[in-house]
Amino acid sequence: MNRRMAVIADIHGNYDALSEVMKDMEKFDIDAVYCLGDIVSLGHQTNEVLELLTGLPNLTIIRGNHDEEVLKAFRKIPSEVTGPEHDHHVWVAEHLDPVYEEYLAALPLVQTREAGGKKILLTHYHLESDDTYTPIDPAPSVESLAPIYRDSDHDIILFGHDHMRHHFEHDHQLFLNPGALGVTSTAYAPYMIIEIEDDGAVHITHRNVHYDRQAFIGGLRREDPPAMDYILNVLLKERG
Ligand SMILES: [Fe+2]
């Protein structure tokens, strides 16, 4: 039996994009959804995203750095993040429905799954030995990724965090980032489908799903959270 998994990453509070991606998945007979963290923050649709995800029957999910910071802000735990970014996390926490506090707190840093004989790692990004994230590599390659996972027995390494789509192969390992679903400079939200056949063959499909980006940006402008200029100009490449 084939195993077909949908991989989503960096939703960042963008329900408009996530809901269209979920509709797209319905075409593909998906067995499981893997979510690679940064569920909330940057976008304003925090509770809508969490409501959708917590209703999924076959979801494997981990936390990202933004999820952790929002939880810290909610619990008033001091953070090393300062300035407008911290103010933004406080704002998201103030809008977080308290029913999701325990859900965010329980999210693991990494998860491992087995599907079709393949061992799959879900991590928001590459981790140091002390479980902190390595600095973002703006131009990863097989040469930079392979040494990080040389001693890992995972066949497929899934990560997000850098908001770029990656697809690298080295020996028996695949290094994949589906791209940031909720932080897009176009009206297309990326995600990925992994299909594993009985004979172990792995097929990767990168999908781009149209969503109403202008409605999302309009909603964000109306909410006007802290760090708005950074979100609009730098992350969403939205001018004016
Ligand atoms: Fe992110």
TrEMBL record:
Enzyme class at the top of the EC tree: hydrolase
Any Pfam family hit: Metallophos_2
Extent of the signal sequence: none
EC number(s) recorded for this UniProt protein: 3.1.4.-
Keywords: Metal-binding
UniProt entry tagged with the keyword Transmembrane helix: no
Cofactor: a divalent metal cation
Domain Calcineurin-like phosphoesterase: 5-198
Domain of life (superkingdom): Bacteria
Protein family per UniProt: Belongs to the metallophosphoesterase superfamily. YfcE family.
Record-given protein name: Phosphoesterase
Lineage of the species this protein comes from: Bacteria, Bacillati, Bacillota, Bacilli, Bacillales
